Records
---
Amino acid sequence: MRMSKTVNLIKLSVGTESVEDLAVWQETKRAQAPDGLPRHVTRMWPKREAEVVNGGSIFWVIKGAVQCRQKINRLDEYIGSDGIRRCAIVLESELIRTHTSLKRPFQGWRYLAVTDAPPDLPEGRAEEEALPLELNQALAEIGVL
């Protein structure tokens, strides 16, 4: 039996200013699956579902930069009050900080290859305050980040 590969998702976290804002949003009842885990409801169902749930994460873009990720637990069917079938991406609760990686705006979610994903911050640096966006952009432009 062949084991499927792993692929991540990347998504803009619209309306959040920081990783802490994302955590606060995910603690609301509206942002949770029936079992209390955070979820993100989206219209499109990933065609590469087996790869997504095989150890994939969702990488969150906040204020123009990837800042954190969450492991994807499962994909649930969600039918809204409008009767439209949607995909609820059910996540692990832990937000894992990553090295900041600048990302241009895009709509919806995209696949993100494991090899293209920014690495996690080392454990001792996870609580450090992120660099200001302008400084981060300047460093990226000269190839430092």
---
Amino acid sequence: MARVCLSLGSNLGPRETYLRKALQALDKELGSLVKCSSFYETLPWGFSSDSLFLNAAACFDTLLSPEEVLAVTQQIEKSLGRKEKSRQGQYADRCIDIDILLYDDKVMQTPDMILPHPHMAERMFVLEPLAEIMPHMLHPQLRKTILQLKEELAERSERRS
């Protein structure tokens, strides 16, 4: 059994409905939901949009491999109406986005997936919900807890403003 942590987000349509439907499908397809964070309203990251995101983090216990988890998350995105991950390499508004953040302490890189997620330590919309449910989980490469990463990012953001 592996522990997989995901980030979920939506900034189009009935955002909360999309997140709840994704969580239900993940619970059915991946394995048992261990914990889900509160929903956080956040600004878009990496692109401009007038639509705010609703974000959450969720952790599941699964028997699936990382590749199988990726296939499940992509199928759920499609079933909820997601048509593309990005447009010509640029982020865009989306009804649902599901990213794999951590899969136990696995470190891997394939053409389709990088674990742990390469940008998670740069994104407060990822760290804040994940720290709510798994504050003491260790990032396998950075060797810091999710709470430490969140606090460090908050400090860096404060210094910039």
---
Amino acid sequence: MNHLQQKIIKLKEEKNALILAHYYQTMDIQEIADHVCDSFAMAQLAHTAKQKLLVICGVHFMAESAKILNPDKTVLLPVLDAGCPMADMIVPDDVLALRKHYPEAAVVCYVNSSAAVKAVSDICCTSSSAERIVRTLPEKQIIFIPDRNLGAYIATKVPEKEFIFHPGWCPVHDCITVLDVQAAREKHPDAKFLAHPECQGVVLNFADFVGSTAEIIDFALKSDCSDFIIGTEYGVTEHLAKLAPYKNFFPLTSTFECEDMKKVKLSDVLTSLETGQHEMKLSTDEINAARNSLERMVGV
């Protein structure tokens, strides 16, 4: 470990802080985290954490979610403008308009969304929990927001329900094309293609496995195969390469990188621990309004 990592670990222990990092973070950030996880596990870990100081190495909605689930804890986001373009594609008025048009529908809100949008939703989900959550709901109509690609994928898994989508998407995953897949397969003909459901359906049709970041990692580690094309953010490829150096992991494209996730640097984490930089603050009303949909998610 370098000197910055050592300083962070020492300070983390002194302050009894918990550092949670998403799989899309750079490897030096992953190495100093107490847990490296997807957004669902991050929400669960934040919800059950004994520490009173949480450092979220991820993007804004993740820190918001941690604060909503832990209103009495201090939640730090090392880089304030680490956002999520998908989350910005929907506002509460969009949800309310859909509710008015489909009054019998349940609103299932992907966790990649603001606290204000969560507040007008019935239940949150992540890519790993979406199918399970939709199946638990008694409503036959599902308003799925904001990711049209994840929603369309879940609709294929639960055809007995009617889905209404909001036209949001992840710019990193949505831009992947069939040509990208064909090029990767030509280069690595023996590799299994593992894809994230935020990709378009035409891309998912070519996948050997579709799953969340955590599910992709689990599949690759347990599989008897040795070569894999990783159809999600490059951080997952790096994470797998470290966990299983005896296997080969290839990013689907060289541009598969989330700029917002990569904004967090070691120096930002250290400064955040030293100074309390960028504490996530939400009003009691904001927390109470959004808490139900998140608590329902982690409880399912």
